[in-house]
Each structure stands twice: as structure tokens, then as C-alpha cells.
Task: inverse folding
């Protein structure tokens, strides 16, 4: 069972929740940029939340299914087309042998996730299916997809007879943030900013530059100034960290960030908002606002609870569906 | 038992905190960092997922929610911080200092690394002297970072402390460089801004090995010079 890449997209790669426990060796965690959508795609096909999925950008790949599969899409809307028929996000979809999945235009968001029921048949590297592009390891041969790649998946289905390809339920989303304002916790060197830069910080917008990728977003904005400066000895950094570069501009660390850094840390985008950040594209603008530790932690817990409820609902609907249709999940 | 140094614990976002022993490159501080790192690796702190030791700090990545019910009104950060402070009050039990010494061959031939001559000139010494100064010391691996398996080592003799390049260039895997009083080895082909002085045939990172990274924080390293033919023979052997 496999999916053939007829035409590769930009940076199509296999990702899961990330590879943790090896940052002390300089091995960055990788993982899906939008962990929330990755998880929703998995739950819809009955997978474990951290099963490996395909992460796609636009232009997205053209994929040929070599055998029957149950898939789900979540994240960005790239106008998915299955054999010329549009298919929706956030619903399980049957695909058959020789079906072609393509994506027409980027309607919303930057990153799209596709899960396959049963997961992809790949060897994990250091406990994770994520592609680490720096180390050229993990995922599918440690790299992004290329034309003619055969991405193997595990689950074999008997031929399906369903006339309706799209299963009749949809994941309810809880995005948690409807604005362009991203909440941050203040960083260790926040107080190094001048008073006017501190004020400016929460009032100005930050545009994602074209040099924004899985490693980090370079932001374009009126320069921020430090009133105090000291050479920082390198220490560990984190996804979501806002580092102030010597040129007065911010780099916001994302999934493929280096494990250590020595630039002033002005703040950290809270975990609960990081998945939304992953859906912004170069040219888009964002703002920051401050929250406290307690709120940030509560949001993480609320998000986890929402995903747990969704998992229960998806499991129930799938079991019921398979029971009625005499399938084995 | 390690000497108790003053420290500061600060939040690194909503799922990590850093214990900072002072923003300095100092062997005594680093020993303290590694002592706590080993202590918390052998007897894990509840809720801690991952520890990253650096020059003068340890970062603890932790889970939210906490693994147990915590006092109402207390954040997971405060709970973790209190636990760590309590552990630090108790002190470190007896532990074995892991100080593995690695002798690493380096080819300092300008044919392989042409910029060596220019760096020696800017230090006001002959290339031979630069090599002698680089190979005479035993260095400590303070931390790994930047790339998988990239060791930050120190400290080099002040006479060969070279500034970083103003803009990064392409650097081959195995390149040995200096930045300030630090010395390091690029495990992978990459962009880099350190002044290059040599090239090792040793592979510092191999994803196919069970332990993909050759050096660990706390290890010690001594460099020894090898000739260009030896370097090439070594590389050829490694390819077989």
C-alpha cells in the first residue's frame, strides 16, 4: 500500500509531534508546524494523535493512491480535488486505487496536513517519524518528497463499495484565537528594551518576511532598540521564542529551530497559539499582546481537553460506521 | 558534592524554564551545570520531559498539566520551580564525573584549509604556532547546539581567539573552527561564521548509528595534527 508522488510540492514532508529528548545533542525537535491540525487529521481517521502525517505547503503535491485508503485533511485550505471532485477539510474521506489527489489554489492558511488511517509504514528515527531536514534523517528518507517517490502506508483495506466518499461528520474546531494578536509571555531580556521600544512592541505590526520557513519567521517591523546590552552566552531556546537580532528585528523560532541561541529573548509565543502562527504566510502581519503564565497554561489544558473530546467523538463515529458497514477498523 | 553557586530560575515560555548560574564561560560553573544535569537525569524531576545543559545554564522542558494535582492558584511553572529549588537545597548525591577524553586528529594543511594562513597573520603568528597553540590544550565540551552534534568547546589560548566572520559562508562537514575563545567542529555541511583552521576526518554525526552524536557535553577533547596524506587515507578508509 502506498501513495505515489506524481508531482512534488514545496517542502512536502512527513511530520509528527516532534522528536524530543535529544536537544542536548543539538538535535532539533522538528515536528508539524501546526500540531493542532496534525492531531485533528489523525483523530478523524482513527489514528493515535501523534501518528505521522504529510505536511504540505502551496504549491502542494499531486498524489496517486496505489490502493484503498481512508484519509483526512486538516489545516490550510488548498482546494483539495479528488479526481476532479472537491473534497472537504476535517472529514474522513475514502480514496480508491488509482485516485488522484491534487490541490488547486491556496484559499486560506499555509500548511495542510493529511493523515492516512493506520499511518505511514516508515522507520522511526530516535523515536519519531518527523523528518529532520538538517540531519537528513527521519520521515521519508530524511528529506522532502520528490516526483516518483512511493510513500508506503500500513493499512490494507478490502475494496470498498461506498458510493459516498466523504463520511458524514466533521471535526468541530476550536481555534482559540480569532484575531491577528498572538499572546506572548515576556522573555528574560525583555527589560533590555528601551521604554519607547517596550511601548512600541505591543502597538506595531510585524510582517512575516519572505525569509520565513520551518526554522523560524523573520519579522519586518520598525526597529526595536536595547537600552542595555551584554553579550549572552548561548543557552537552550524554545519553539515560539522571539529573539532580537543585532539588526533590531525579531526572529520567531518555529519547529526546526536550532536547539541553542545567544540573542536577547524578548518573549515567547504561548503554546496554544503556535499552531495558528503556522498558518500565516510571508507577507501576512501579526501583533503581539501579553498574557501571564497561568493563562498560557490554562489554554494548553483547554486545548488538550478539546482534542480529547474530539478523539472520543471521532472514535465513536468511526466504530459505529464500521459496525454498520461491516468493516474492520 | 558540588559547591553551591547562586542561580536564577526564569520562564522560557509556558513549557520550559531555565536555571541560570551566571552568564559566563567558566569551568567551575559548567561543572556545577553538569553535576545537576547528571543528578536530574539519574533521579528525574517529576514532570520534566527533557534537560538541556549549556555553558552556564540548564533548561528543563516540562509537561503541562503537571503529572500530579497541584495547589490551586499555583502555576505549573511555580510548581516545577519549587521542586527544582527543593532538589537544589538537598544537594547532589555522590556521582561519577563522566570526563571521557577524546583525541581528535585534525589536518591543519593550508591546501585543505586555505584561510588558516590569513587567520595566523591576523593573530600575528606563524601558522605552525597557531596549530601548536590549538593542539596544546585539553578542551571541555561545554554544550552541543547549532547543528546536530556541534560541540562548543573552550577555551582556546587568547593569542588565537579569532572573531566571528561578519557573514556566514558554506562550511564543509569536519571543519574545525574558532570563534572568540571557543573552538568547535562542524558535524555537517552547513552555513557557518567561525574562522576555520583545520579539518578532521572523524565523523561527529551519523544518523545511522545508535548513538548518532560522537561528543557529549562534559567530554574532554585534545586535538593532534595529521598530515594531508594521512587525512586523505583516513577519509578513504572511512568510505570503505
Result:
Amino acid at each position: 500500500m502506498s501513495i505515489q508522488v506524481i508531482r512534488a510540492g514545496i517542502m512536502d514532508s512527513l511530520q509528527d509531534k516532534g522528536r524530543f529528548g535529544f536537544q542536548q545533542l543539538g538535535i532539533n525537535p522538528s515536528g508539524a508546524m501546526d500540531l493542532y491540525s496534525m492531531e485533528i487529521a489523525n483523530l478523524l481517521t482513527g489514528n493515535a494523535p501523534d501518528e505521522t502525517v504529510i505536511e504540505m505547503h502551496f504549491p502542494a503535491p499531486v498524489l496517486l493512491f496505489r490502493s484503498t485508503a481512508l484519509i483526512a485533511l486538516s489545516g490550510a485550505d488548498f482546494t483539495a480535488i479528488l479526481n476532479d471532485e472537491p473534497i472537504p477539510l476535517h472529514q474522513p474521506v475514502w480514496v480508491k486505487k488509482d485516485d488522484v489527489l491534487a490541490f488547486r489554489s491556496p484559499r486560506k492558511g499555509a500548511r495542510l496536513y493529511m493523515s492516512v488511517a493506520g499511518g505511514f509504514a516508515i522507520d522511526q528515527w530516535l523515536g519519531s517519524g518527523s523528518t529532520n531536514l538538517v540531519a537528513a534523517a527521519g520521515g521519508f528518507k530524511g528529506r522532502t518528497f520528490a516526483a516518483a517517490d512511493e510513500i508506503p502506508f500500513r493499512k490494507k483495506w478490502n475494496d470498498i463499495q461506498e458510493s459516498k466518499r466523504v463520511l458524514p461528520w466533521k471535526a468541530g474546531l476550536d481555534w482559540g484565537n480569532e484575531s491577528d494578536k498572538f499572546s506572548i509571555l515576556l522573555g528574560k531580556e525583555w527589560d533590555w528594551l528601551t521604554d519607547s521600544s517596550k511601548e512600541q512592541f505591543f502597538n506595531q505590526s510585524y510582517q512575516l518576511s519572505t525569509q520565513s520557513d520551518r526554522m523560524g519567521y523573520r519579522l519586518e517591523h520598525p526597529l526595536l532598540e536595547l537600552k542595555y546590552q551584554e553579550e549572552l552566552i548561548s543557552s537552550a531556546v524554545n519553539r515560539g521564542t522571539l529573539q532580537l537580532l543585532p539588526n533590531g528585528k525579531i526572529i520567531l523560532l518555529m519547529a526546526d529551530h536550532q536547539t541553542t541561541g545567544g540573542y536577547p529573548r524578548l518573549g515567547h509565543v504561548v503554546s496554544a497559539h503556535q499552531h495558528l502562527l503556522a498558518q500565516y504566510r510571508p507577507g501576512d502581519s501579526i501583533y503581539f499582546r501579553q498574557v501571564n503564565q497561568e493563562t498560557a497554561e490554562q489554554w494548553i489544558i483547554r486545548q488538550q481537553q478539546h482534542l480529547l473530546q474530539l478523539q472520543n467523538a471521532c472514535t465513536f463515529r468511526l466504530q459505529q460506521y464500521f459496525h454498520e458497514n461491516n468493516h474492520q477498523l | 558534592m558540588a559547591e553551591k553557586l547562586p542561580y536564577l530560575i526564569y520562564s522560557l515560555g509556558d513549557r520550559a524554564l531555565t536555571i541560570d548560574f551566571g552568564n559566563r564561560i567558566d569551568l567551575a560553573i559548567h561543572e556545577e551545570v553538569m553535576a545537576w544535569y547528571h543528578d536530574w537525569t539519574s533521579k528525574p524531576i517529576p514532570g520534566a520531559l527533557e534537560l538541556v545543559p549549556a555553558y552556564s545554564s540548564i533548561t528543563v522542558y516540562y509537561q503541562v498539566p503537571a503529572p500530579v494535582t497541584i495547589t490551586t492558584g499555583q502555576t505549573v511553572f511555580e510548581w516545577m520551580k519549587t521542586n527544582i529549588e527543593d532538589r537544589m537545597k538537598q544537594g547532589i548525591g555522590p556521582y561519577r564525573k563522566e570526563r571521557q577524553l577524546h583525541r581528535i586528529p585534525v589536518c591543519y594543511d593550508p591546501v585543505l584549509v586555505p584561510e588558516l594562513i590569513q587567520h595566523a597573520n591576523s593573530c600575528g603568528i606563524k601558522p605552525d604556532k597557531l596549530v601548536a597553540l590549538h593542539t596544546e590544550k585539553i578542551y571541555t565540551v561545554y554544550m552541543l547546539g547549532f547543528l546536530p552534534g556541534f560541540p562548543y568547546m573552550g577555551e582556546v589560548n587568547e593569542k588565537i581567539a579569532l572573531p566571528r566572520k561578519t557573514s556566514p559562508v558554506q562550511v564543509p562537514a569536519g571543519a574545525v573552527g574558532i570563534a572568540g575563545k571557543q573552538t568547535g567542529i562542524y558535524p555537517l555541511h552547513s552555513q557557518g561564521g567561525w574562522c576555520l583552521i583545520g579539518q578532521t576526518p572523524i565523523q561527529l554525526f551519523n544518523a545511522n548509528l545508535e548513538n548518532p552524536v560522537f561528543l557529549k557535553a562534559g567530554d574532554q577533547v585534545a586535538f593532534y595534527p595529521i598530515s594531508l596524506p594521512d587525512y586523505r587515507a583516513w577519509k578513504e578508509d572511512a568510505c570503505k
About this structure: The mean pLDDT of chain A is 95. Chain A touches chain B through 46 residues (CB under 8 Å). Residues 293-324 of chain A form the longest helix (32 residues).
